[in-house]
Target: Divalent cation tolerance protein
Amino acid sequence: MVTAYVTAPPDEAERIARTLVEERLAACVNRVACESVYRWEGEIHDDEETLLLAKTTDERYDDLKRRVVELHPYDVPCVERFEERDVHEPFATWRDEAVGE
Amino acid sequence: MVTAYVTAPPDEAERIARTLVEERLAACVNRVACESVYRWEGEIHDDEETLLLAKTTDERYDDLKRRVVELHPYDVPCVERFEERDVHEPFATWRDEAVGE
Amino acid sequence: MVTAYVTAPPDEAERIARTLVEERLAACVNRVACESVYRWEGEIHDDEETLLLAKTTDERYDDLKRRVVELHPYDVPCVERFEERDVHEPFATWRDEAVGE
Model:
């Protein structure tokens, strides 16, 4: 199973998270408030963002990534994949069903 | 070394985290406030939760998972395992000792 | 690509995060408020901390880890490495450039 790590502006995060679940690209998305310091075009910025931790499957990750890029207001959004192991079995089954056709 | 990723209701999170440390199933648990959107029995829900990031070892992960499932109020709790690499050596040693017999 | 997971006292977190970006050891650092329960010298503690999720590269991780240990007020800071896969390509390119010489 896969956790996708995405950052988004706070006022767009709920819409993106909900869309991923509505479209069965994620079973669940955890949204976490954060502050982000980064280098962009030579300047250092520090902005409020929301971290989205989207619970999905191997099969769905590529579609989720494509959809995040479509939905996202940034030119270069952060979308990364982390592998999970030894997921609690009933939770894994629920996830498979929640993103199933 | 291993990070276990667990979500819990906000008013149960501290108890679960503290129990894992008291019982030497984790050396440390970081608790993070989050909002979670998910699909459950055909409906989309959006609830406040707390993310628990429990720092443990390969040897302890299965016991930690079993104990989380016992302590947890949900029927189908999220318990996942993420592998770490190149942990700062003194921190790794401390963790080994903190979950040691 | 690599995410470094670091915890820090809340009043030091911004300085550490900004230094890592200024010194091109990370392209971006997400800071998240958390509460941490842990065992230290036989006692259980519960403190406010800040989680730093630093986005860097394979090549930069060891330097980032060394620098975090120098900058950090703790004797035994938490510095861990998580591997990412299938990062959104333009984001990966940006990161490479942001930590480039």
Chain B has a mean pLDDT of 96. The first strand of chain B starts at residue 2 and ends at 8. Residues 58-71 of chain B form the longest helix (14 residues).
